[in-house]
Model the fold of this input.
Amino acid sequence: EVQLVESGGGLVQAGGSLRLSCAASGFTFDDYAIGWFRQAPGKEREGVSCISSSDGSTYYADSVKGRFTISSDNAKNTVYLQMNSLKPEDTAVYYCAARGSAWGIVDVTTWPSSYEYDYWGQGTQVTVSS
Done:
């Protein structure tokens, strides 16, 4: 059974930090790119970051560049999203998702396309207070 389980969300003050984790199981981790997406109330889901498990390439939305860092521990089948200098506008439910190699190479133009992700976690709430 494929599972993606997010953890690490919570309530933090503006300027603070959180680290999200995405534990994956049930599929060959190295064959997938793992992305983080978020959805705020009344807004569309947006791509936050992505990492290729095969070569470690990373991608970020402009809104989080320089503040968020994505990393992967392939031995643990886990991807992390370190979020620093958090802002109230970062408040959202954060989801991790797995994009299989059948969609082709993940690159700067393809990674934010949520429809190309095969598996999704249940989400974790991040709330940043001002």
